[in-house]
Amino acid sequence: MYPFWPYGDDSPRRSTPPDDDHVTVDEALAQRVAEAILQAPLVESGHLHIEVQNGVAILSGSLSSREACDAAADRARETPGVRDVSDQLTVSPARGRKKRG
């Protein structure tokens, strides 16, 4: 699995490359997918994990909106080398909302 670390408004958006010098094709592709998703303006906060198996990008975790989830999946699909995308992303509940009552 290739983690795309959580980020919020107060921390930098980043992906973490593999530690060793022997990067597989799928690990390199996961890095390219992460870099593409970082460029999506709608993906502002949340927790996203990216795994690539045989060219299939598997996105899991939660983002701030359905639009952000769709934008992440679209960016993954547009990444050269990605054969398919398994979008397992969910929308995280809004923070700071007060209950009515």
TrEMBL record:
Pfam families: BON (PF04972)
Segments forming domain BON: 25-93
Descriptive protein name: BON domain-containing protein
Basic and acidic residues bias locations: 10-21, 71-86
Source organism of the structure: Paractinoplanes bogorensis
Annotated spans, Disordered: 1-21, 71-101
